[in-house]
């Protein structure tokens, strides 16, 4: 698709209705198919090239529709045999709010794919380029969007800053000479650094040179959670702080993806079990975290509930969560 876009996107392909309809007939079904796959397969993995192509296609279709309107829809439908309802629905959404369509695409890439967080920087750069042209009232330079990335820096945009910071931290920790020094430094780091950086430990690819080191640190963190140490308490507070940020809806999805790691789920459930067993005046951050872990979309909902049902005060816990759920929702 990248080759097709580089060789076919230009001003004339937008201005001329016949050309626009021909390209829309090729591009829109491809885009809709990928969006459907993202809804059905939460673990779909997209490359940087996939993301760029999807963004370019969405912008191209929006530009064509802004110029030709209903005439584009009718001309394009004559060229395709299937999916007329979904195609017309997409054009109707563009008619209402094309900015919202683009927002939906970016949100789907980030939240409905297994590696969407890795493309945040790339999406930001593409959005910034497009928005600047819209604000200035200029025509979009299709040659700029259609050409391959021209610098090494833009290639690095697919690697999230937090991933780089995590790898630097892991390298520093492993320069320490003894296990006691490593454990002490890890405790301090857990108290000081935000949770989004620690999440990258669970995302490190199995084939990575850093994977074995990340795996050891993950087990050490899980041990702390199961032991309910003072450090683990502050770590859990950092989790909740991350989940209550402004962009909390996308943060929750990213947090849920960590739940694909059985050891982390087990450790977090054990921590919650011990907390609710001993606590008579629960802190707000623990009420909210437990609420999220027991939510219908939570991957560890059943496991945590089976842990909590062993407690005599389970009815009181559920009553409190039920009262607070109205506020949280």
């Amino acid at each position: 698709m990248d080759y097709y876009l580089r060789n076919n996107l230009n001003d004339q392909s937008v201005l001329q209705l016949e050309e626009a309809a021909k390209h829309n007939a090729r591009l829109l079904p491809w885009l809709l198919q990928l969006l459907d796959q993202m809804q059905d397969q939460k673990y779909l993995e997209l490359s940087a090239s996939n993301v760029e192509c999807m963004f370019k296609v969405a912008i191209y279709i929006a530009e064509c529709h802004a110029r030709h309107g209903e005439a584009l829809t009718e001309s394009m439908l004559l060229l395709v045999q299937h999916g007329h309802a979904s195609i017309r629905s997409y054009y109707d959404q563009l008619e209402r709010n094309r900015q919202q369509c683009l927002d939906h695409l970016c949100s789907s890439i980030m939240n409905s794919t297994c590696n969407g967080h890795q493309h945040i920087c790339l999406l930001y750069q593409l959005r910034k380029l497009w928005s600047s042209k819209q604000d200035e009232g200029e025509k979009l330079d299709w040659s700029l969007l259609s050409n391959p990335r021209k610098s090494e820096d833009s290639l690095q945009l697919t690697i999230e800053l937090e991933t780089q910071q995590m790898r630097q931290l892991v390298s520093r920790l492993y320069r320490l000479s003894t296990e006691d020094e490593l454990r002490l430094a890890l405790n301090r780091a857990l108290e000081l650094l935000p949770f989004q950086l620690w999440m990258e430990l669970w995302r490190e690819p199995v084939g990575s040179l850093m994977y074995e080191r990340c795996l050891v640190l993950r087990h050490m963190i899980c041990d702390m959670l199961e032991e309910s140490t003072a450090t683990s308490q502050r770590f859990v507070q950092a989790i909740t702080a991350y989940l209550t940020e402004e962009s909390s809806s996308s943060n929750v999805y990213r947090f849920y993806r960590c739940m694909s790691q059985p050891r982390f789920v087990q450790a977090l459930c054990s921590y919650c079990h011990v907390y609710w067993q001993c606590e008579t005046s629960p802190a707000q951050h623990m009420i909210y975290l437990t609420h999220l872990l027991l939510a219908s979309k939570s991957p560890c909902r059943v496991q945590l509930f089976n842990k909590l049902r062993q407690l005599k005060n389970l009815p009181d816990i559920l009553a409190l969560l039920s009262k607070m759920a109205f506020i949280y929702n």
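The chain has 19 helices and no strands. The first helix runs from residue 2 to 8.
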